[in-house]
Amino acid sequence: MKLAPLSCVVACLVFACLAGVGCESVADATSGVRARLASRDESRARTFSADQRATYDAVKAAAHQMGYRFVRGGAAQGELEAVSGVGQGDTARSARQLSMKVRLQPNLEGGTQVSVRFTEIIEADSSNRAGHATETPLRDTPQYEVFFRAVERGLAGGDKE
C-alpha cells in the first residue's frame, strides 16, 4: 500500500521538474517576442522647458491643428489620446484612421518630456467586417516633426486654440 503513494510522489517530482524547464523556455520566448514588438512600437520624444500644464495645453492645441479629435487624457494624468477623422483606405470598402498617443513626464533637468506615437488603423472591409481593424505604428512619417514644431510654436505663444 505504501508503494502507490511513493510512485505518485516520484511522478509528481518528475512532472514538476519538466514543467519548470518548460516554463523557462516559454518565458524566454515570450520576452523575445515582447522585445521585438516594443522595438516596432517605439515613440519619439522631445523635452520642452515649460511645465507640464503649459506643455499639455500646447500638445492639445497641436493635435487640434493637425486635425485630430481629442479622445481622452489630461494634464494631471500626463496623457493625451486623439484620433484623426475616418477616411477611405487604399482599397474599396476599406477605412483608414490615424491615432496619436502622447505621454508627458517631468524631466530631471526641469521642463517636460513629451513622447508621442502615431499609429495607422486600417479596416480592410468596413461594410462586412466592422470592428476588425489592424493597427500599425508609423515610423517614417513627417507627422512627428509637424507635431513637435506645433508644440514649440504653442509654447512660444504663436498659436492659440
Keywords:
2 domains; 161 residues; flat; 3 helices; TATA-Binding Protein; 7-stranded antiparallel sheet; alpha+beta; single chain
Q: Outline of this structure?
A:
This protein is an alpha+beta fold and 161 residues long. It has three helices and seven strands.
Question: How would you portray this structure in words?
Answer:
By secondary structure, the protein is α+β, with helices and mostly antiparallel strands. The protein folds into 2 domains: 1-40; 43-156, TATA-Binding Protein (2-Layer Sandwich). The chain is 41% helix and 29% strand. It has helices at 3-40, 52-65, 143-156; strands at residues 44-48, 69-74, 79-83, 87-88, 95-106, 112-123, 133-137. Strands 1, 2, 3, 4, 5, 6 and 7 form a 7-stranded antiparallel β-sheet that branches. Helix 2 (52-65) crosses helix 3. The model has no long low-confidence stretch (mean pLDDT 80).
- On the 0-100 scale, what is the average pLDDT? 80
Order of helices and strands: HEHEEEEEEH
- As for the CATH topology of the largest domain, it is TATA-Binding Protein
How many individual helices? Answer: 3
How much helicity do the residues have? 40-55%
Low-confidence stretches: none
- Total beta strands: 7
CATH architecture of the largest domain: 2-Layer Sandwich
Main sheet attributes: strand count, strand direction, barrel closure:
7 strands, antiparallel
